[in-house]
Amino acid sequence: METGGNSLPSGPDGVKRKISYFYDPEVGNYYYGQGHPMKPHRIRMTHALLAHYGLLQHMQVLKPFPARDRDLCRFHADDYVTFLRSITPETQQDQLRQLKRFNVGEDCPVFDGLYSFCQTYAGGSVGGAVKLNHGLCDIAINWAGGLHHAKKCEASGFCYVNDIVLAILELLKQHERVLYVDIDIHHGDGVEEAFYTTDRVMTVSFHKFGDYFPGTGDIRDIGFNKGKYYSLNVPLDDGIDDESYQSLFKPIMGKVMEIFKPGAVVLQCGADSLSGDRLGCFNLSIKGHAECVKYMRSFNVPLLLLGGGGYTIRNVARCWCYETGVALGIEVEDKMPSHEYYEYFGPDYTLHVAPSNMENKNSRLLLDDIRVKLLENLSHLRHAPSVQFQERPPETELPEADEDQEDADERWDPDSDMEVDDRKPLSTNLQNSNVKREMIEPEPKELEDKKRVAVPAEVTDRASEDVSCSKASDVVPMSIDEPIGKVEQENANKPSDQSVQMYTKP
Ligand SMILES: [Zn+2]
């Protein structure tokens, strides 16, 4: 039973939505390094499932236009973006001070094609926001995005640029208020920090709290100055199951939607909150996780769905495939179609996996207490704040190529009739490509499995990444307060040990 969801004109929640889905065929080739839990290959596995379940044909499939320097600099510091653009595995030894300064090297390693990877995943999220702003779709999806830990001038938790902040800034050009919801197991610290002092963006994060990366997200952190009460944190403990999770998610999000009345919603669908995640410790089923998507969709407000964490990659692909179906209003069947990564899903070859019998450390009492506290915070927001619009900055016109088209790589420029003709077939250019192909590693549990799944020869043309060739219109600085770092005083609840611990922090 749902509480608080708006009724759709035609009744129940099965009504179709128009979906724009962003995917770059090269994204699966980026490789963080041997043993690193973050595997962009999971995005390609998700895409393969979508293709073989027949879901792509119900969506507009778009290849994102890479975000340019100036797009990234709408949030990030110039010198940080310059650093990301120039650093390579070969030159990093000469840049030790810079690496330290920008927190790049350990959890956030330098790898081949790092900057194009950032441009690609940020391009998808900003592109989704542009589509929503233009009313060209109801829901935009970018499973490669959702990298919520990146800061203005610092990488963090496997994240380099914060595509979510950039997408929200884009949505704010069109919408007075934007809601951000984060169901990754980790606190959405980078996004919260960026909008901590504004009432135009409300951030709500559900996460494991207590001796866990990134250490922030205390229930007492509620925003500052004009942003007071516009940040909500839902601290949870190990083993939370579907029922416990929804006993908080629906009442809280129902109240947020009723009071804040956002013009657009961004939902970060980090899949490390699923049962059995390599780094996570929650016990959600895919249906329990997807219930959050279903619920946010039911409000019929423009919705941007993003990826995030997720380290048991077969379950990540399962989850985001199922959630794409939820977005479309299509219930996909449990029996998995045969496809190039089929071996990952044995022995059952089903979409759904049973949660474990681990202990749920979230007692009823604790959950009730959290819900009461958060609803009390929300009662301070009596009505949606009215926003004095300054002169509205122009839309970012990010051109995107439609994968359905014969030539998916024919990039166009909104400001000119000239076609960008710098295509290079990747298949004939692998040696020169700055993207290393991922050597698919088994996950720890699969180490015994000697069967190796070959990287499919799924190569497509790709336009070169020369930023200086981009000609899309200039972006005018936003009219809201610049996103800023959270003031120190508000961080009083941070655990004292913020030291870097390899791979305990996505
Ligand atoms: Zn995470």
UniProtKB/TrEMBL annotation:
Q: What is its EC number?
A: 3.5.1.98
Where is each Histone deacetylase domain found? 36-324
Point to the regions of Polar residues compositional bias.
492-506
Reaction equation(s) it catalyzes:
N(6)-acetyl-L-lysyl-[histone] + H2O = L-lysyl-[histone] + acetate
Region (Disordered) residue ranges read 385-506
Q: Name one GO molecular function term.
A: histone deacetylase activity, hydrolytic mechanism
Here the segments flagged for biased composition (Acidic residues) are 397-420
Query: Where does this polypeptide localize?
Result: Nucleus
Give the cofactors, semicolon-separated: Zn(2+)
Binding, a divalent metal cation: D184, H186, D272
A Pfam family the protein falls into: Hist_deacetyl
One GO cellular component assignment for this chain's record is: histone deacetylase complex
Enzyme's top EC category: hydrolase
Entry keyword set: Chromatin regulator, Hydrolase, Metal-binding, Nucleus, Repressor, Transcription, Transcription regulation
Record-annotated residues binding substrate? Answer: D107, G157, Y311
Question: Which residues are annotated as active site?
Answer: H149 (proton acceptor)
Q: Which SUPFAM superfamilies match?
A: Arginase/deacetylase (SSF52768)
The record's listing under InterPro entries reads: HDAC_I/II (IPR003084), HDACs (IPR000286), His_deacetylse_dom (IPR023801), His_deacetylse_dom_sf (IPR037138), Ureohydrolase_dom_sf (IPR023696)
What protein family does this chain belong to?
A: Belongs to the histone deacetylase family. HD Type 1 subfamily.
| Protein name in UniProt | Histone deacetylase
Lineage of this protein's species? Eukaryota, Viridiplantae, Streptophyta, Embryophyta, Tracheophyta
